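User: Thanks for the earlier help. One more: DUF4386 family protein. Can you show the sequence and predicted structure together?

Assistant: Of course, both are below.
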Amino acid sequence: MAPRLTSAAFAASGILFLAYIVVRPSGDDAAAMASTAWVAGHAAAMAGFILLGLGMLGLHQVLGDRLSLRAAAVTWAGAGLTLPYYGAEDFGLNVIAQRSLRDQAPALMELAQEFRYGPLPVTMFAAGLLLLGVGAVMAAVSVWRTGVLPRSSGVALALGFALFLPQFFTPYPVRVAHGVLILAGGIWLASALIFARTRRVAA
């Protein structure tokens, strides 16, 4: 994967994760889940996870060490566990909420809660997000150790994904700030990749 594409993947991933929380309605009621914004916001997050995985693979090709390869593998595993939950949240809850509003049947929303807090879905979701955090931290350590990129250029992204699970339990403004952190981390790492490529070409 070309460094330019790797840079674009990290930058786009950061943009999409901020879009996720900004576009997604702040509430979790039927009206929020039935909205187009609910679908668009969660779709942005799913695309962000995929681009993050691609970025991690490209980062390994730039750094060339074993730790960055492991970081890419862990990130892909985390995305694989997380995406089914996001897909069900996005499309499944949207359908349930629309039917609940159309039929004036609030009891249907109990189905949404049964899914969201079911033992297996929650376990997969939490494990996936934890692995994403671990993968991002491993990548940041690899960036620091190899010295191919500015040593701290992976720190913000690692912090953002390490906090991905806890931020769900915070107020909406904090969640927006978390989206800004991931955006900053993605742009920072993307910029580091571009500047490193420019230096190599100039040399």
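User: Great, one quick takeaway?

Assistant: The mean pLDDT is 95.
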